Fold this protein.
Amino acid sequence: MKSIKFLVVAFTFGLFLSNVVNAQVANNNQKELAEVKILTSAKCGDCKSKIETALTKQSGVESASLDLTSKVVTVKYDKNKTSESVLTSAVKDSGYTAEIFNGTTKKSDCGDGAKKSDCGTAKKSDCGGAK
């Protein structure tokens, strides 16, 4: 009788431990998704491709989409695997300027003294700083 009680208690305790471990593993694997907008110096489709590729190669990046008109790249990423500073560094390492976008674009943000209406319309040969 004692051995049956012991087995029941041991089995119940084993199930409890199994559930605790599984819950901890599930919590560690959860993604904490965030979105950041980065203002870049991109001017053409080639610039767009290089920046998006550099960002999507970073660990934890779900997506990167650059709008050439505003020069802002929107990045969706897992906060547990990367950070805004790593993402801006990836853009800079690709040969472009990068700063966290605060929601406003100044004329000077168009780069190279271009008028705001010229942003995003440069020819591929005009893409200074791109590697």
Summary: The longest helix spans residues 2-28.
